[in-house]
């Protein structure tokens, strides 16, 4: 996975830790290296979200993906969090916006093939719908169309396509659409069906993984690249990026120090040491998942609250 947060290989020597504990710490309890904002690719959630904060860029990206003209984007929300009830799983969308026809779009970057992405797309659409429909509304005709888009750096379905589009249709009558107004699109940056795919889409998907080296004569791609450069040289964006990275490092360092202290106290009991190593792996996995979803508040809370951390483990099915 391409990320702004790359793991360091050197966490220092701890003479009171056993060899197995020390080696495990090297792969889990590590402080993050700083990767300059200017070196990030669009696969990075932070950079992608900042670039898509611009309505015109949102419109351009949609036109490339859908292959048609899009009217002016009315509103958009970056990292929009949706929760129906505290006991039920909510979602945090990378980018969510609507056009003048009131179609709602959600666009996500996906760098890892895990956690059942097709079913996640179903959950995203349902959460968006719940937030839109007013309480007490009985006429569902007012529910707007919704399109959930995942930009994947891998081929989710293994058919070699750049684009997979899904709509609900009758099983017995294939030409009979359900008409529920929903669509789910899964893009693959590494597709192979060039002859069947619009050149603009191919270039856009190449741009996602190879942003820094991308060159194009396509005006839409040029507009996106121009927006990327504007974001990368924005002092305020750089500040937000550094704050995010600093927060992550502080939490990782604090938890690592705590683990070392507890490890020293329990290190003589092999079974308990192994349990500590397992907890370190679990926390590292949780950190990655929360970072992918930009749930920074939850990440900080998990670092300080054991009960909340255990709840997060259950939600993400981390054993």
Break the fold down into its secondary structure elements and pairings.
Elements: E1 5-7, H1 19-27, E2 32-34, H2 45-51, H3 55-66, E3 73-82, E4 91-99, E5 104-110, H4 117-132, E6 146-152, E7 163-166, E8 182-188, H5 199-209, H6 219-232, H7 235-266, H8 270-292, H9 296-304, H10 306-315
Parallel strand pairs: 5-6, 6-8
Antiparallel strand pairs: 1-2, 3-4, 4-5, 7-8
Tell the overall outline.
globular
Work out the oligomeric state of the chains in this entry: single chain
The Cα radius of gyration reads 22 Å
Low-pLDDT segments, ≥5 res:
1-31, 78-92
**Structural class by sheet pairing and helices:** alpha/beta
Number of domains: 2
Distance between the termini: 21 Å
Please give the number of β-strands.
8
Beta-strand percentage range: 15-25%
Query: What would the average pLDDT be, to the nearest integer?
Result: 79
The main sheet orders its strands as 3-4-5-6-8-7
Reading the helices and strands in chain order gives: EHEHHEEEHEEEHHHHHH
Portion of residues within helices:
40-55%
Number of helices: 10
């Amino acid at each position: 996975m391409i990320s702004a947060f790359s793991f360091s290989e050197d966490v220092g020597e701890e003479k009171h830790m056993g060899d197995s504990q020390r080696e495990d710490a090297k792969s889990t309890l590590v402080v993050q290296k700083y990767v300059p904002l200017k070196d990030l690719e669009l696969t990075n959630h932070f950079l992608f979200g900042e670039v898509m904060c611009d309505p015109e860029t949102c419109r351009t990206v949609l036109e490339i993906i859908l292959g048609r003209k899009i009217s002016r984007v009315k509103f958009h929300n970056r990292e929009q969090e949706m929760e129906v009830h505290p006991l039920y799983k909510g979602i945090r969308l990378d980018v969510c916006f609507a056009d003048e026809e009131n179609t709602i779009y959600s666009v996500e970057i996906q760098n890892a093939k895990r956690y059942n992405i097709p079913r996640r797309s179903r959950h995203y659409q349902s959460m968006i719908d719940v937030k839109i429909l007013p309480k007490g509304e009985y006429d569902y005709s007012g529910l707007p169309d919704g399109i959930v888009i995942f930009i994947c750096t891998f081929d989710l379905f293994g058919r070699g396509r750049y684009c997979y589009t899904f709509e609900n249709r009758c099983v017995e009558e294939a030409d009979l659409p359900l008409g529920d107004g929903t669509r789910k699109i899964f893009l693959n940056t590494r597709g192979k069906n060039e002859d069947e795919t619009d050149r603009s889409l191919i270039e856009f998907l190449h741009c996602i993984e190879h942003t820094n080296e991308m060159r194009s004569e396509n005006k839409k791609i040029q507009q996106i690249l121009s927006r990327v450069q504007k974001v990368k040289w924005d002092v305020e964006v750089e500040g937000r990026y550094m704050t995010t990275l600093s927060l992550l490092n502080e939490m990782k360092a604090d938890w690592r120090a705590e683990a070392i202290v507890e490890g020293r106290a329990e290190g003589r009991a092999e079974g308990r040491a192994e349990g500590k190593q397992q907890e370190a792996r679990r926390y590292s996995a949780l950190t990655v998942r929360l970072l992918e979803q930009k749930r920074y508040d939850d990440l900080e809370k998990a670092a300080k609250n054991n009960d909340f951390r255990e709840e997060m483990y259950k939600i993400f099915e981390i054993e």
